[in-house]
Amino acid sequence: MYSYPYDITAYVRSLHLYIEQQNQRISQIEATLKSIQTELNQIRNKPTTQIERIEYKFDQLKVETLEGTLNIGLNPLNGEQIEDFTVSQNKMNIPDIRHTHKDLIREIHDEVDSYLNNDCSIYIQQTLNQKRASLPDEHVGFIVEDIRKQINERIIFYLEQNQAELQDPTKLAEIYETTLSKLKNDIQNSITAYLSNLPENMKEGFDK
Description:
Blueprint: H1 4-45, H2 78-92, H3 97-100, H4 102-118, H5 120-130, H6 137-160, H7 163-166, H8 172-196
């Protein structure tokens, strides 16, 4: 009978302690919000740099070594087209020609590889002669090797465009010749575009 006032007192103390804790948490949250608001205001008021014009002076570049990759694209949309076609292929559940036409891929790759080893350097030199310019043999070799790295995916890209025809064995020879012709054309176009945009100081003097 006499414990009732004691229970009320304990409850009030507990409630008071809880309210104090909540007040402290509210104060901390308010302080955090105030700090965030201050930082936002500082960011908004911070002056920005506006770049009106960028000029690239490629003719002032000095190239002493050839390292890495030249990224001579066989086609400006090469990577995007291959990726998009692969996605579409997966959606249609078309067999991967890397597995179904290994022999054809290898034959085309070997022929293109032979072209790169024998005729590609000649084409580069002919193009340089037309532009009355020259490059070190090391640079010419670097161009050829950079293109070589892109050939395999380019072969796949062209063959995937002929999925239906690939199912007919009588058309494989025609596909082989057509693909080979497109690849050589891509190689020559990429070389011409690359040499047309070389900085002057990357060229050797041409004996007139």
